[in-house]
Specification:
The protein is of the alpha+beta class. It has 12 helices and 12 strands. The chain has 4 domains: about 110 residues, no CATH class; about 80 residues, Beta-Lactamase (2-Layer Sandwich), CATH 3.30.450; about 80 residues, Helix Hairpins, CATH 1.10.287; about 150 residues, Heat Shock Protein 90 (2-Layer Sandwich). The strands form 2 sheets. Strands 6, 7, 8, 9, 10, 11 and 12 form a 7-stranded mixed β-sheet that branches. The protein has a 5-stranded antiparallel β-sheet with strand order 2-1-5-4-3. Helix 3 runs parallel beside helix 5 and helix 10 packs across helix 11.
Length: about 475
């Protein structure tokens, strides 16, 4: 629209040039028709090269009229007596139009090539600015400012949904642009307002919108615009990646600090626990004639001291495992001895509940860290005790899987069972079933830790359950290879 307006504004000057050529050729030098025709063509080519096709078309028609009136007989009239002059006039007009078209196209191609080179240089400068941008201040602010400066935009608006902010660059802010930028992200669509010269484009990465960009007073080719949007997307993605890495590093350091602190606290607790355990053990072994009531209380103290010591050791190990610090000390472990030791740790916690043991003969030894494997099985059994009725018994069974070269230990309870939708989620960190949060104590870490230990050994832990019929947790550990009768 603006191009056509500027072209028609130069029409009077175009007419003046043709009039000047006519005056020079007709009055000053009195040249013949052939010379005048070449003079008109030269003027038309110069006009096409300097201004464009609109001016060249006006010059061609005006030149044809002047050529006919002043140089083709009868001179001074718009009629042509000789048919050959008709051919000359039409040839002149066709030549002028074709020459104007090619001259205008060559000019446009030159300007387009120059514009593309300029776009490439600006995109390169923007990419350097983005790569060299520091972490001080929001990245959206830096991108908007660099865009306005490098591409000479009147105004730039960049909306980042991650922060909910709109960052501006340039000398002015587009009116009522925030709502349009937010709507563009919601609709995932770009718009262009010709009257206000505002372009709103959606920034995407992997098909997902990362934000939106508003540019005012800038003309970009489609390829340059797409390259620009990709550069902005890279800038936003880079910052989000850095933020994610920072959060991950902070979380890692927090886990390490938690593990170190818990380890220190555990050692502080173990010192008095060791003294309590030593005192209770001495009372039980060195004084044979304790009164029944004192004997019972001393036995409780001794058992609970052992249990507290075990809990503190497990807490430290669980913290280390949660911080991805699993260090295995493998050795051949006999399955029956391994299971018996774990069940012995529960002691009085069973409250008279029965545990049926079904270990098949000929089980191979497993290659495992005895302490960590015991912790995993202990967590599984503890889970079964918590989530099943005190009137029911637990079953611990083990079998050899020859195909996979492993031993599977199964802990079966007679609880309510686990819905299919939650059978995998119960192994997530801190996850607890909604129906059991209030009536069953726990942190939601036991099964997660048990699975991590099993997988660190090269095994696994999963659950098989039928709602209303209880659950069966299956813990697999790699076999040592040498068979041992149990």
């Amino acid at each position: 629209m603006l191009i056509w307006r500027s072209s028609w504004a130069r029409v009077p000057l175009t007419l003046a040039i043709i009039a000047g050529i006519t005056g020079v050729c007709f009055r000053l030098f009195a040249v013949n028709a052939t010379t005048a025709g070449f003079a008109y063509l030269l003027g038309i080519l110069l006009i096409a090269a300097a201004w464009g096709l609109v001016e060249a078309l006006v010059a061609s028609v005006t030149g044809m009229v002047c050529f006919n009136y002043f140089f083709l007989p009868p001179v001074g009239r718009f009629t042509i007596a000789d048919p050959e002059n008709w051919v000359a006039l039409l040839t002149f007009l066709a030549t002028a139009l074709v020459a104007s078209h090619f001259s205008d196209r060559a000019k446009k191609q030159t300007l387009e090539a120059k514009h593309r080179q300029q776009e490439t240089e600006r995109l390169y400068e923007l990419s350097r600015a983005i790569l060299l941008t520091g972490t001080a201040g929001p990245i959206g602010f830096h991108v908007a400012q660099n865009l306005a400066r490098i591409f000479a935009c009147c105004s730039v608006g960049l909306y980042d949904p991650g922060t909910g902010q709109v960052f501006y660059g340039g000398s002015a802010s587009p009116p009522a642009i925030e709502m349009k930028l937010r709507q563009a992200v919601m609709d995932s669509s770009s718009t262009r307002d010709v009257d206000s010269e505002v372009l709103i484009a959606v920034i995407t990465s992997g098909g997902h919108p990362l934000g939106s960009l508003a540019l005012t007073g800038i003309r970009l080719s489609d390829s340059a615009l797409q390259a620009l949007l990709k550069l902005v997307a890279i800038a936003l993605e880079r910052v989000r990646t850095q933020e994610a890495e920072t959060r991950a590093e902070a979380a890692r350091q927090s886990e390490e600090f938690k593990s170190t602190l818990l380890d220190a606290v555990a050692h502080e607790f173990k010192t008095p626990l060791t003294s309590i355990k030593a005192a209770s053990t001495s009372l039980l072994t060195d004084i044979p004639d304790l009164q029944p009531q004192v004997l019972e209380l001393t036995t409780i103290i001794d058992e609970e001291a052992s249990r507290l010591n075990l809990l503190m050791t497990d807490a430290v190990r669980m913290s280390q495992i949660d911080a991805s610090k699993i260090q295995l000390e493998r050795r051949p472990v006999v399955v029956r001895e391994f299971v018996d030791r774990v069940l012995e740790d529960f002691g009085s916690r069973l409250d008279g509940r029965g545990i049926r043991i079904d270990l098949r003969k000929g089980l191979p030894r497993v290659s495992a860290d005895p302490d960590l494997a015991s912790m995993a099985l202990r967590q599984v059994i503890d889970n079964g005790l918590k989530y099943s009725s005190p009137a029911t018994e637990l079953e611990v069974a083990a079998s050899s899987e020859t195909d996979s070269g492993s031993v599977t230990i199964r802990v079966r309870d007679r609880g309510l069972g686990i819905p299919e939708a939650e059978r995998e989620r119960i192994f997530d960190r801190f996850y607890r079933r909604q129906s059991a949060k209030e009536r069953v104590p726990g942190s939601g870490m036991g099964l997660y830790i048990a699975r991590e230990i099993a997988r660190a050994h090269g095994g696994d832990l999963w659950v098989e359950s039928v709602p209303g019929s209880g659950s069966e947790f299956c813990l697999t550990l790699p076999a040592e290879g040498e068979s041992l009768q149990v």
